Amino acid sequence: MGKRTKKIMLGLLLGFLLLTWGCQEKGSEAETNRDTTEATPSPAPTSAEAAQNVSTARLKALLNTMEHQNLDKYANPEIMEEPLAAGRALLEKEDLTQSEVDAAVKAIEEAYAKLGDGSGFTAPENLPLQEELPDPFRRLDGTTVASVEDWTARAEEIGELYQYYMYGVWRDGSDEEVTYDYGNGSLTVHVKRISTGTEVSFRAAVQLPEASVEAPEGGYPVIVGMHAGISEATANARGYATITLNPYEIASDDNLHNGVFYELYPYGSAWEEQSGVLMAWSWGCSRILDALEAGAGAELNVSPVNTIVTGVSRWGKAAMVCGAFEKRFKMVAPSCSGAGGVALYRYKSEGKTYDFSSKGASSAYTYGQNEPLGSLQSAAEQGWFNRSFMKLSSPAQLPVDQHLLCSMAADEERYLFIIGSCISEDWVNAPSMWYSYLAAQKVFDFLGLSDHLAINIHKEGHAVIAEDVEYMTDYFNYHVYGIEPEKELDDLKTSVFALEQNRDAAWDSFADGWAVPERRAETER
To answer: What are phi and psi of 58, to 5 degrees?
Structure first.
């Protein structure tokens, strides 16, 4: 924990304690700093103390507050034992001095500031503001990425940051057994949590290409949707199977944490017991892969390897989260995901005017409000995230931004295909998704994986539209199967926001100051 964090925590604690003591002197009720337990008034100074002109008010208020703390909820409560015992013993002395009292107060405050939840990370409410876009190549300890091995470690660190500060814990299936049943276009996935014996089941809809469409060796490639309505017919016609979840069966879209996921992994008070709904929906798609590997793939003639995960809006956020953590998906295709998905928290397009005439839309389209942090933390959306995320007062406190989530999908066996829309997408902030693409591109370029990142900003539609599926399947066919595309794949390296009249010159230098390493040569891959 840095000196700045300590000072902030100690200052907040001291200010609170002084306020508590003042209220106690007036006979009011006191509340503890982190609990709502009612505190009892501190004893008044003795005549001996008054005679010696020694003030013990701060020490007594501090001890009184700590008596009503549930210190067992922290990872290291034992560090409070010695300073608290010393403080109590000091008050029993007949000839105590002010310097002794001040030292006791300092010892308790310093120990209190070191209490932690076991994560090793700074508490979210104590994070400093960082207006600049976080550097993908600089680790928390200040060291920089210089090799692929360094990036692997950095990507793991980024994943830990997202789990602690935003989405909650990723459940990778290592504590699970998965079986399945299939019939009449319905895949039923059965999951048993090994450590508890709890068993759950959920269903997914399967749509296969016509029998006249020949499957490649290993089975049809498959698009796994967080929900139905992902242009399944277009995908099937192009030789792709689709498997779509009922996301509400996996997890309720609220902060109640209901659904089969939470039957297996109940939402708890410790950060390690908190997986937000986006993580829960991601888990559902991951279990589809388990079912395919367990035999459903062979039965359906669907490849368990050549897989794509997609979703729109809140499920676009979940698709990006899933693709970042579930490395078995060969391609990640989040659509219109906005804040908490692909869009940068630190870039706002509201009030900016864009020329979309090249897309057949307005030549002067002005963006309205982008989705703010307050909306994500509202009762309607807070369930998507964990409790740490609720403690942020500004997205600029985050040690990550969404280009880092995109960068977690950078792998020589995988691809990221970002989908957005020009008009009527003010809330999801499509220009910000473009800048997230550009920032993530720095990582893909360094790894020699420039062709593994694509973006399609269609004209309109808060959806995975037919155009997206056509580009997506052409792109996948070319890179995975070596099939020449029908569409121009170079279109997927740019967007309407790259046009000179739409370029935000202020963001030309967003990577200035980043420790960008020398690009990895293709021959090193």
So the answer is: -65, -45
- Decide: 189 and 274 in contact? Cβ < 8 Å: no
CB 489 within 8 A of CB 478: yes
| Window from 15-24, 331-340, 435-444, 450-459 with minimum mean pLDDT | 15-24
Number of CB atoms found within 10 A of residue 87's CB: 22
Sheet (strand 302-312) strand order: 176-183, 186-193, 199-207, 241-245, 220-225, 302-312, 331-335, 415-421, 453-458
**pLDDT tens, position by position, 275-331:** 999 999 999 999 999 999 999 999 999 999 999 999 999 999 999 999 999 999 999
pLDDT above 90 for 48: no
Of all residues in the chain, the percent with pLDDT exceeding 70 is 89
458: its two tokens: 């269609």
Distance CA 373, CA 393 (A): 8
**Between 57 and 376, residue with greater pLDDT:** 376
Return the higher-pLDDT residue of 266 and 31.
266
Name 319's Cβ contacts closer than 8 Å, sequence gap at least 6.
Answer: 226, 282, 285, 309, 310, 311, 332, 333, 334, 335, 337, 341
Residue 408 in contact with residue 159, Cβ under 8 Å? yes
| Model confidence, pTM | 0.83
d(CA 520, CA 148): 8
Length of the chain: 525
The per-residue pLDDT for 36 is 35
Q: What is the DSSP code (8-state) at residue 359?
A: G
Q: From start to end of 412-503, where are the E strands?
A: 415-421, 453-458
| CA distances (Å), origin 71, targets 34, 65, 242, 251 | 10, 11, 50, 32
**Amino acid at residue number 38:** E
- Give SS3 for 170: coil
3-state secondary structure 82-106: HHHHHHHHHHCCCCCCHHHHHHHHH
Beta bridge partners of 80: none
List, as own/partner pairs, every contact residues 80-86 make where C-beta atoms lie below 8 angstroms and the sequence separation is at least 24, other chains included: 80/108, 80/111, 80/112, 80/115, 82/111, 83/107, 83/108, 83/110, 83/111, 84/108
Q: What single DSSP character describes residue 292?
A: I
